[in-house]
Amino acid sequence: MPLSPIARRKTRLKAAPFPIDLFSAQDTVTCPPGKPTTCRTKTSSRQKGFTLPELMVVLAILTIVAAIGTTTLLSSLPTLRLKSTARDIFSTMMQAKAQALRRGENITVSFDAARKTYTMTSGGAPLTAPTPLPPQVTFGPAVNDMGLSFTETPLVFSSRGIPLNAGHVHLQAIDSHGNILRQRTVDVTVAGRINMN
Description:
Layout: H1 5-15, E1 26-27, E2 42-43, H2 52-103, E3 107-112, E4 117-122, E5 125-126, E6 131-132, E7 137-139, E8 148-149, E9 155-157, E10 167-174, E11 180-188, E12 194-196
Parallel strand pairs: 8-10
Antiparallel strand pairs: 1-2, 3-4, 3-9, 4-5, 4-6, 7-10, 10-11, 11-12
């Protein structure tokens, strides 16, 4: 009478040499009687790990991906710095407007194109240290249709938070060869609204 599949499985389990170490990389071998000195364990043919060619291929792929990523990051770095600088100048102008309202006096934001810095002052006394522009970001020339440039005439907020002179700051991102990559403008309207373009 043939055995059922369950009975066959039970028979196989009974015949297996115990204890079985499932986590060992070696198979146990029973020594024949009379020759205990020649009895050895066989190493398993299924060893885990990577071969040298596999590791070399993975390293080559990682190197190519890193090179592409580095090149992309370096080419976009001036644009990222330009965006950050425009935000910082926008924030400084907003602070100057708030300080003028809070203190009840004129607050000036001066831009030094030669030194590539900007600072906020009150009555000639500095409220902030001169902030330098990051590398590859410069003040650009005045934009004709946007009024005066604050790099030539400082921005002054009155005690009511209204600018005495409307105008703009023009910023440029340049590459290592001096080519203009991108431009941004922070402008102040007569009503005191500050915009970043």
